[in-house]
TrEMBL record:
<feature type="transmembrane region" description="Helical">
    <location>
        <begin position="138"/>
        <end position="157"/>
    </location>
</feature>
<feature type="transmembrane region" description="Helical">
    <location>
        <begin position="12"/>
        <end position="33"/>
    </location>
</feature>
<dbReference type="InterPro" id="IPR050375">
    <property type="entry name" value="MFS_TsgA-like"/>
</dbReference>
<feature type="transmembrane region" description="Helical">
    <location>
        <begin position="45"/>
        <end position="66"/>
    </location>
</feature>
<feature type="domain" description="Major facilitator superfamily (MFS) profile">
    <location>
        <begin position="1"/>
        <end position="385"/>
    </location>
</feature>
<keyword id="KW-1003">Cell membrane</keyword>
<dbReference type="GO" id="GO:0022857">
    <property type="term" value="F:transmembrane transporter activity"/>
</dbReference>
<dbReference type="Pfam" id="PF07690">
    <property type="entry name" value="MFS_1"/>
</dbReference>
<feature type="transmembrane region" description="Helical">
    <location>
        <begin position="73"/>
        <end position="91"/>
    </location>
</feature>
<keyword id="KW-0472">Membrane</keyword>
<feature type="transmembrane region" description="Helical">
    <location>
        <begin position="357"/>
        <end position="375"/>
    </location>
</feature>
<dbReference type="InterPro" id="IPR011701">
    <property type="entry name" value="MFS"/>
</dbReference>
<keyword id="KW-0812">Transmembrane</keyword>
<dbReference type="InterPro" id="IPR020846">
    <property type="entry name" value="MFS_dom"/>
</dbReference>
<feature type="transmembrane region" description="Helical">
    <location>
        <begin position="97"/>
        <end position="117"/>
    </location>
</feature>
<keyword id="KW-1133">Transmembrane helix</keyword>
<feature type="transmembrane region" description="Helical">
    <location>
        <begin position="163"/>
        <end position="180"/>
    </location>
</feature>
Amino acid sequence: MKEKASIGKILPVMFGFFVMGFVDVVGIATNYVKHDFALSDTVANILPAMVFLWFLVFSVPTGLLMNKIGRKNTVLLSMFITFLAMLVPLISYNFTIVLLAFALLGIGNTIIQVALNPLLTNVVAGDKLASSLTLGQFVKAIAAFLGPIIASFAAVSLGNWKLIFPLYAGITIISTIWLWSTSIKKEVQEGNNVSIVSCFGLLKDRYILAFFIGILLVVGIDVGLNVTIPKYLMERCSISLEQAGLGISLYFVARTVGTFLGALILAKYAPGKIFKYSVSLGILGFIGMLFSSNLVLLSIFIFIVGFACANLFSIIFSYALKRQPERANEVSGLMIMGVSGGAIALFLGMVSDAVGTQIGGIVVLLLCLLYFFYLGRLFTKTDAN
């Protein structure tokens, strides 16, 4: 059951997307942990893999959990787990403890991504879903681009990059209290007959299957860039980690700008057309990154890629929810399982170690982006029906 949209109900839900963005700290954190413990790319990239593999395990069960306790309560649970994740690195600092912290972060983020997107449908009209999801990604992107800046400031000015964790813990508490105190009517349950088997049965729909693969790849590209950009800049431009880490912030600034404009544009134009233009622009940006070694040019192409990829996730997600709206919880759980595609970072580390250059990882990400030309054709067919 949808409520009448009001700013008082939308804002705490949207602020939840800010907490969702904390997961992107894994990019800069991976680089700091690699430096602190002198790890290889393959071992260091276990960190983002540890975060995103949990999406494979918990996404579908979370979709079923929402049918029992509701979307709002599920989001509140995710925030509690996220809060715990932020406390763990403050207890001790070794590679095992860091793995535990990011495992908890991955579990909490899995739950919030499964539950928060459908919760948004409770407070906004259906025809505004794509633009509202994009606005949520805009808020998430703000948290994402602030992460490397805060970590760099903490490392250089305060002498400890890990001070980002108590800050994130405090913000998580604020978000939890705000959402908990907001009245959102309990949604109509999708039935008691849903199960893991019935949820995976959605993949028999070739459109749902294609959207699921799309989520896998778009998150893989995003996380892959998050982890690879600093190492790529250090390799190509011979700069320090603190300087190169700002490349991630530039990428997320571009995503922030892209999602903000996307929220406005998608409210007026067909998402499928915007998707096609975005993919084409992203490919041009990747090609530019491969053939540039100048810091200014690389920064421009990183911005182009971030801007182009900003709205891909929300567009794919909105088409998936609209495909079978009566099974939104299950569809959301299945789609968010695709966020496990972030574990591609481990594969990128292996490729980079194997070929001896970060260029190998960038090529893999470019190949992933080519899949979206096929997905764009499916969107056109969907809009035509």
